[in-house]
Amino acid sequence: MKRKLLWIALLAFALIWPILASSPWVQAQIQALELIGVRPFIRMQGTEAGGVTYEIRENAGTLTLANVNTTATQSMAGILYSVAGGTTGCTAVPGDDTVLSYTMPAGHLSANNKGIEIEAWGITAANANNKTVKLIVGATTLVSSGVIALNNKDWYVKGVYTRTGAATEDAVGLYGNSTPTTVGPTRAAGTDNTANAIIVRVTGNCATAANDVVGAGMVVRAVN
User: 3-class SS at 16?
Assistant: First the structure.
């Protein structure tokens, strides 16, 4: 009986494999292919889409394709967070106010040398008021624009934040705007506990009026 089932599975595989093999998706995804006996099944595994594993199983003469790894959460490009077209401006006058924010899940930086890369951008109000833009991860300021009086100008910040220990990080940040003005790269030592959730944020300091700094977009990528 077992031998008969094996021959059925082999025959089914021979019939469907030419179709599967010609699929660009399959060609891109397959990292490992196994044919396993007793109750034969074919396993296809790839690193795309977070390393999802698929199996073609035979049961009573019926073949089914199943996702056997439903815990993968990371996107193909390693993007943890992405938003664009935002219009949130600072409201605290004076003081730092969050205009863009992402909460990194607890334990995401589970080992040394794991990290994140952040890019964020926005615009300043059409006036000569003093403004400040900062990129902050946890309790660590990666870069600050300092006090600037930009009138209706685009701004951009970029940073890398990498775990070096359970509660230590190496971070670097860069600020620029379309005037042009550049600040950094500046390097900072973080002290955040990586077992906890960590907030990634961009703040605007509205020393004179609300919405002097507006956040338009932010992308956070995993660096593993």
Answer: helix
- Residue 17, token pair as written in the block: 């494999």
Establish if 74 belongs to a structural domain.
no
Three-class DSSP labels, 46-98 = CCHHHCCEEEEEEECCEEEEEECCCCCCCCCCCEEEEECCCCEECCCCCCEEE
Count of domains forming the chain: 2
Amino acid at 15: L
**Residue 40 phi, psi dihedral angles, 5° rounding:** -60, 140
Whether residue 88 sits in one domain with residue 173: yes
Q: What is the pTM of this model?
A: 0.64
Q: Which domain holds residue 8?
A: 2-67
Q: Tell me the pLDDT tens digit for each residue of 88-102.
A: 999 978 889 999 999
